[in-house]
Amino acid sequence: MSVHAETKAVSVPQLAQARSEGRKLVMLTCYDASFARVLDDAGIDILLIGDSLGMVVQGHDSTLPVRVEDIAYHTAAVARGARRALKIADFPFGSDPTPEQAHAAALRFIQAGAAMVKLEGAGHKLDIIRFLVEREIPVCSHLGLTPQSVLRMGGFKVQGREQSAAERLRAAALEVAEAGASLLVLEGVPAALAADITAASPIPTIGIGAGGGCDGQVLVLHDLLGIDTGHRKPKFVKDFLAEGGSIAGAIRAYAEAVRDGSFPDETHSYL
Ligand code: KIV
Fold it and tell me: Whose Cα sits closest to atom 1 in ligand 1?
């Protein structure tokens, strides 16, 4: 069962409620109104208008070229298609250098129909999280393999394998929650570390390449449908179209597998 009643929109407090009741949160990226309708009908709890659109929609090699206008445009389209799922808009690279600039971008996303904004990293981002939350804008944090750090990381690499890096990640997870984030995406993290962070986290965690111990899962929609986007598919990606038989069937198969805990299994996790 999804976190929402049939006709009511998923709210921010319902995320914590789902966690406390042991119900997994099902999240997918979404970029347009038609898919938003399909995902909404399949009972997906959260739609992320991710900056992954730079790679799977715009054809770039990374998420770095995505602009605030792009996220606002796609958020408005998704909001027109989905009435029930909670919509999260992603801050693109460089759009949140100061709290004031982040707030201006966040207002555009909220006006476009988002109920929450997502930003990568901790450190100086903590002030931004506080600034937004104090102004009633719910925040989702994103830690681990943060794609906007691709230049520094020298590629898309699993994070937190060494003891010191794992400790930094544990600390950052607590800091973003303390700053006021309501949700935490953990990407590209060994499964055991993500499970530890989830157990210690006061807010729900959503994994992508972070094993089955998180409170929910997210995938990029194109990956779930087996679409060749021209990019290497990471280990955690599973094509659900084969077993689902149709696009709607694939979305439902993914939602069911997340909710019954069968996805991700060990073959789709970093151990
Ligand atoms: O932009 C995106 O799609 C994301 C997910 C991969 C979590 O940030």
Answer: 50
All domains of the chain, ordered by start, with CATH?
A: 3-268 (3.20.20.60)
Q: What is the pTM of this model?
A: 0.96
Which SS3 state, helix, strand or coil, does residue 200 take?
helix
pLDDT one-digit tens code per residue, 223-251: 999 999 999 999 999 999 999 999 999 99
Mean pLDDT, to the nearest integer, of 143-170?
96
Whether 187 sits among the annotated catalytic residues: the reply is yes
Bridge-based pairing state of the strands 86-90 and 205-208: unpaired
- pLDDT single digits (tens) 93-105: 999 999 999 999 9
| 129 Cα–ligand 1 center, Å | 18
Q: Which DSSP string do the residues of 96-133 spell out, in sequence order?
A: -SSHHHHHHHHHHHHHHT-SEEEEE-STTHHHHHHHHH
Give the 3-state secondary structure of residue 144. Answer: strand
Cα-to-centroid distance, 55 and ligand 1 (Å): 11
